[in-house]
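Curious: can you check?
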Amino acid sequence: MAGNEYEFCPSTNSAYDSAGCVRTRSSFDATRAKDDVSVPAEGAWRLRVAHRDAAANTDLANSTSPGPLRFDATPPSGEFEPFDPRDPSRIWLRASDATSGVARVEIEARSDGETAWHTLKVDGDAGSYSAVLDDALYPRGSYEVRARVFDRAENERSIMQTAQGTPLRVALPVRVETRMDAGRATKIRTNKRGKPKYKQVLDARPVVAFGRTTTVSGKVTDPAGNPRAGVVVDVLERVDAPARPWQAIGTVQTNAAGMFTFKVSKGASWTLRFSYGGSPTTQPASKEVELRVRAAATIAPDRRVRRNGDEVVFRGRVRSGPVPEAGKLVTLQALTRRGWTTFGNARARAKDGRWSYRYRFTGTTVRSRYTFRVVVPAESGYPYARGASKTTRVIVNP
């Protein structure tokens, strides 16, 4: 074998199409036993190789082909596109690569004074790409933006400019702020003298009685107070107990005035989170309402009339369950001239919430009527606020 005949043809050519084909040859001697050849230019090529003998015989029709060859030495090209006022937080990029095509796109942002770039999630293909610089996630300030475009040959180009040649910078926030207020509607007095005047406010930490439903109201507006009408607000709850997760319990929609209401079922103390997810032009907002439910309990004496020196057994039940496994401390109080005074403690059982306490009357010299109650104090792990029973009375004769 005296050498090789090579024919490079564009990969798009048909089997017998020689348009654009480039031929080259090589010769062997005692010092050269192999060839080094390169494709004629960037692009995709199909190579055919035929051997040539010493008599110069060769036949490309009977050649062999090592498979397609691709050569791309030019990085991709691209530019940032103008912002869409209907989606101002979205960054748009036009990118292409004429030879091997775009393999992937990375879009990053960093605020002034930072050295680290934040990678944004990129959507799109076929030359048009975008990413959201979320002004609810990133702090307010000025951000520079860059794109890194890679082709299939791993050539890379960094893009930081628009079509006009100016660096792309974004000042956050770009969307209109949203304000949300929520709570149980209640009236407060606004004047101290004269005829009472009241205004309605939303209490974000209301205290409610055990076993009653409660209505929570709210409003979604822009900074000027204009209503966000017809927007959906997600409602989540978390029971006031250790390791309890947030759970989605429903959605509400604002009316023409931006108002919404949500009825909370009876139960333990909750924290409610009302969350508006925002829109392409408006920021999200959320508000938490801590709904504290008073603990409930009963108290009754085994006798209503006793003599001085006799004992009375108070019994009752903690109604606001579940009661912790270790039981629930309750405090017994008597009404005196100085107010309610604690005279004993008992522990309610976990299985049924029942408790009892034995008390002896001493020092009663005249017929007296005593008033008692039981208080259920707040406690870690018990999802209720401090509550008290109705009062009960015992008459003690000297």
